[in-house]
Amino acid sequence: MKRTKIFTLLSFVAMLTMAVAVDAQPGGPGGFPGGSPPSGRPGGQRPPTPGRDWNQHPDSQQAQQVKQKKKVKDSDTFKVVGSLRDSVSGEFLQFVNVAVLDSADSSFVKGGSTNFDGLFEVTGIPAGGYLLRVSAIGYQNQLFPFHVSNNTALGTLRIKPGATTLQEVTITEQKPLYAMDGEKMIYNVSEDPSIQTGTTEDALQNAPGVEVDVEGNVSLRGVTSVEIWINDKPSKLTEENLKTYLQTLPANALARIETITNPSAKYATDAEAVINIITSAHIKSNQFVSFGVNGSNQPFVSPWVSYMWAKEKLSFNIFASGRLSDRYNNSESEAWQRIDRAGGEKGKDFDTSMYMHAISDDTTLSRSANFFANLNYEIDSTSELSIDGGGFFNYNKSNADRINNQIFFRQPVDSVLDYSIRDNMVSPMGFGHFGADYTKKFDNEGHNLRIGVNSRFSHNHSKEWYERHYTTYTNLNEDRYMLSDSRSAGASLDARYNRPYSKDGELSYGLRADYNSNNSDFNRYNDLDGNTVDQIRSYSLSGSEVSADADVNWTHRWGGFTLSSGLGVGIEQSDYIYGSTQDFADTGSNLNFTFRPSVHLSYRTESMHNLKLNYSMRMSNPSDEQLSSFRRYGEDSYSRGNPNLKASYTHSMEAGWQKFFETFGNVGVEAYGRLSTNEISSLTDAEFDQLLDRIVSYSVPYNMGTSWRYGTSLNMTYRPSGFFNVRLYANLYDYGYRMEYDRKDENGVWSHKIDERSKPSFSARINAWAKVFDQYQITMSLNYSSPTISLMSEQKARYWFNIGARTDFFNRRLSVFINIQDLFNWGAKYGFGSENTNPYYLSSSTNKMLNSRYISAGVTFRFGKLELEQNAKEGDSETGDSLGG
Questions:
Q1: Long-range contacts, 373-379 (Cβ 8 Å, 24+)
Q2: 3-class DSSP state for residue 40?
């Protein structure tokens, strides 16, 4: 790592003030005879080892003096002193930040900086065990354990450029909770004690701009087109598998979360945003084992075990868990729907409307198990090989009973339909992955090569028995049996080569090749025994996709300025076959090209103000499903693709400022804008369907027109002490769209339609963490999201309040926690839902749970080197599952 010395004005003034103050004390700086503590400098005494009390050195003059003093009380506080040197040049390091952390949970206690002579002094430290964190520009951040029972001198600590270990001390990079690095906003999960008993989904809620709704869908600053990466690689998980991953991977297995709202060419993605989840770093020595059990009153119970072994160049981590749950939920929902058939004034002329009220009782029995293993081998000082693999198996059995009252107005007779639905489903699901990564460092200046090979496979199988029985119109009764079987497999090859061309600039080249295949059978029967095939709704899908992406990125630095620009290009070949006995069966092949230019400018001042200005353009091609004319029928609707779709383009720009304060915390503000043209969205209408012999709704995707999103966000962390912090994230934006399309009315006459709408939206999240009585941790989270819109839909407001507590015993060998979700049961009182704002097919739905409040608790036992715990996976406080990627 290149070493850079940055002398900030604020640090200079602070050190000058401290130097004047300590020089005024008897005996010189720090009050030590001779003007300095024993530090190993020429003429000084032999330095004590780190963590040793200098008053206990029998040969030291200070020790003799202290013996004559009165015995100190446990309530007294003490000072910690020492000095820092470059391990290569031997020179003392000036104006370097040091921080004293509680060894139990790494929470911040007090901090300071070195002076002109490389000396530091931190006062007001109570007796106990601590870690000294050293943060030096151009050096690895390092941790030194020590114990305080009196005034303590740590001696001379030598900091190695680029070092990752110091004897048996595990070295991990310690950073502020939030940081800005070029196009990335970084949330250092490992530095956030309030989230350690949660899940990855919980941690995502704390990342700036990220929202996770009640169904597990992820959005970033209101954008739902988000690609999830894991350890700098696309996850390539299916939607449901990804939700399972986020809800089961414990937060204490994470190092950080990077949010990229304006991804550069090197990400080679069609998504509008990227969230990169980085799991904990590898360990270098010893072993650690932990096990425990978690549960809740929903109810569920989940035992788990984690084991980590590491020695010299080899480390191994294994995690396994099981989960048993039996959940019951009662909910009430209502929905209404209107269809414009007259072709008259928008929103006024309707000849069909429907209102539905439903009460549901659902029970879900779930059994799951998952396993993850990682092997990391340091071949030599320049090469490293990492192999990982794992997967999960889930078995769900659900039973749902619903009573519907539906008022359906249909010419020529208005009807009131009362019916009951019974839906039973059995769905086993499995997912597995295996991968290997090789990293080669050619020097310590950033010249390196990384090659990764990954494979994945999944198998989802479900059986469903569906009964719908009417009170009056018994001739409409339906009994169905549905059998679904989906299999997918994929493999990818990733390579990235980084080559600095000077001390201030570098070039990065990336190449990615990917292959995916999918084979699915959807068999539907018009009876519960599977004898009568439903020819309309049964179909099969076979598809494959081969893609290759390449990118080049240039970065150069001028002082505090950093300029990065990149260009990515890609080619994709996809083939699909929709098999059906109907005449709308379809086969197709698509060849698409993409390109992605980007420019990112950032500036960091000497006083640590961080500024950024980014621009990128994203090109998105329609999917096979959006292009295929095949009809996918539901109960009373169908959807199909549009072969005439064109690529859409999104231009994104953002500007941001972030400032970190040593005592206050941090404040950050961003302004952003996004403009999309040729945006693809589905238009829902209604027509008489010959196959179903009734009026049904149908959806077809179109290049609808233009949409925009302009807004600003604020993130702030307030840390008045090392035992309390409050975090605020607020986002205010305006979303709008303008649609232009042609529509044929009931008389067969085409007309040009224009629909334009915009709506301001606001969301806020407040998280608090406190440690009381030096043992108990309390966390609180208050969330609110106002109604938001997207193309032809509107999400209703959502809000919830969570609270939790945790305590440790026997030097953290035993931990116990309890969490209460939705403390005030707002999900039951107010519910959640959405509205379809399509001007020709309006609908609204609201869902309320009988009780959205629930309690979860867990106990954890730990054995081994506790400093390794951050890198060992633990059971999840919410679900008990975990999955590595």
A1: 373/316, 373/317, 373/318, 373/319, 373/884, 374/315, 374/316, 374/317, 374/318, 374/884, 375/314, 375/315, 375/316, 376/282, 376/314, 376/315, 376/316, 377/313, 377/314, 378/312, 378/313, 378/314, 379/313
A2: coil
Confidence of residue 266 (pLDDT cuts 50, 70, 90): low
Q: Which residue has the higher pLDDT, 826 or 526?
A: 526
C-beta of residue 610 within 8 angstroms of C-beta of residue 562: no
Q: Scanning the structure block, which residue is given the tokens 């406190």?
A: 770
Give, rounded to a whole angstrom, the gap between the first and last alpha carbons of the chain: 28
**Cβ neighbours of residue 616 closer than 8 Å, sequence gap 6 or more:** 262, 263, 264, 596, 597, 598, 599, 651, 652
Beta strand pairing status for 750-772 and 832-836? unpaired
AA letter at 109: V
Predicted pLDDT of residue 269 = 67
Which pair of tokens denotes residue 691?
Answer: 């196959």
pLDDT tens readout for residues 476-506: 788 889 999 999 999 999 999 989 999 888 9
Give Cα separations from 842 to 329, 340, 758 (angstroms): 28, 9, 17
Q: Is it true that the peptide bond before 412 is cis, omega within 30 degrees of 0?
A: yes
- The angle formed by the CA atoms of residues 794, 795 and 799, to the nearest 5 degrees, is 155
Residue pair 156/119 in contact by the 8 Å Cβ criterion: no
State the maximum Cα–Cα separation within the chain, in Å, rounded to a whole number: 106
- Half-sphere exposure in the Cβ direction for 625 (13 Å, CA): 8
Whole-angstrom distance, CA of residue 369 vs CA of residue 304: 10
Which of 90, 162, 172, 91 has the alpha carbon at shortest distance from 131? Answer: 172
R_g (Cα) of the chain, nearest Å: 31
Q: What size, in residues, is the chain? A: 885
Walk across the sheet containing 254-260 and list its strands: 178-181, 184-187, 254-260, 273-279, 226-230, 233-234
Q: Which of 134, 130, 131 is nearest to 163 (CA)?
A: 134
Question: Residues 141, 96: contact at Cβ < 8 Å?
Answer: no
CA nearest neighbour of 768 among 778, 758, 776: 778
Return d(Cα 171, Cα 141) in angstroms, integer.
7
**In contact, 659 and 611? CB cutoff 8 Å:** no
Residue 632 — φ and ψ, nearest 5°? -105, 105
What string of H, E and C letters represents the secondary structure of 368-403? EEEEEEEEEEEEECCEEEEEEEEEEEEEEEEEEEEE
361 burial class (0-12, 13-18, 19+ CB within 10 angstroms)? middle
Rounded-to-integer distance, Cα 707 and Cα 131, Å: 51
